[in-house]
Amino acid sequence: MQKSLIIARLIGPVLSAIGIGMLVNQPAYREMAAQFLGGLPFIYFSGILGLVAGLYILNVHNVWTPDWRSAVTAVGWFLTCVGAFRIIAPQFSSFVGSAIVANGGFFVGAGIVLLTLGGFITFKGYMA
User: Fold this and answer.
1) Contact residues for 62 (Cβ-Cβ < 8 A; gap 6+)
2) Per residue in 77-89, pLDDT tens?
3) What pLDDT sits at residue 100?
4) How far is CA 49 from the centre of its chain?
5) Upper half-sphere CA count for residue 124 (Cβ side, 13 Å)
6) Which among 101, 51, 103 has a CA at the least distance from the CA of 77?
7) Is residue 94 domain-resident?
8) Angle at 6 between CA 18 and CA 23, to 5 degrees
9) Which structural domain, as residue segments, surrounds residue 77?
10) Up-side HSE of residue 94: CA atoms within 13 Å toward CB?
11) With b meaning 16 or more CB within 10 Å and e meaning fewer, what string describes 29-61?
């Protein structure tokens, strides 16, 4: 349980901050996404960071239980899969990402999901 709390206290506020940023500053996030997706080295490097972060979470916290700790494990698996995908196929990642970001409601939807998930994980991490 202690590892779950530590990881939740780290990733929860980060996800919440990103979600708030996406909701209140959509033009800047859209511009950052366009610049990011235009540079394959950025995609590759973010893949390395995502893969390392995801594998770290899974190595210390691969817990599937019927409570909030499974959300932490799910974040680890998501980071691992996205990171590996960005390393293996950076051009395709750019193509897919550009199509997703072009959708007008992407940043609103992603912001709501990240803020909700981050808020939930933060609450569980600090209120336990």
Assistant:
1) 73, 76
2) 999 999 999 999 9
3) 87
4) 11
5) 20
6) 51
7) yes
8) 10
9) 36-127
10) 14
11) bbeebeeebeeeeebeebbeebbebbeebbeeb
Spatial separation of the C-alpha atoms in residues 42 and 90, rounded to whole Å: 9
Hunting for tokens 């932490």 — which residue is that? 72
- Taking the C-alpha atoms of residue 70 and residue 91, their distance in angstroms, rounded to an integer, is 32
Residue pair 19/114 in contact by the 8 Å Cβ criterion: yes
Instruction: Tell me the two tokens of residue 2.
Output: 């202690």
Q: What is the pTM of this model?
A: 0.86
pLDDT at 70 over 80: yes
Name the nearest CA neighbour of 12 among 68, 84, 81: 68
If one counts the domains in the chain, the total is 1
Per the domain annotation, does 87 fall within a domain?
yes
End-to-end CA distance of the chain: 10
How many CB atoms within 10 Å of residue 97?
Answer: 16
